[in-house]
Amino acid sequence: DRCHSAVELEDRDVVSQLEARAKALGFQPQAQTLEVHGLCAKCAVVE
């Protein structure tokens, strides 16, 4: 969060689990975005 660094990760297993859970709740997902905030390796060392 401090340096505003960002990376994009794709994990088919995570996407499949999100879709399955959403469908189990009666929701029809068309797209999904999962954001994780924290510190990059450099910023974590400074902490």
Automatic annotation (TrEMBL):
Say which domain of life the source belongs to.
Bacteria
Supply the name of the protein.
Answer: Transcriptional repressor
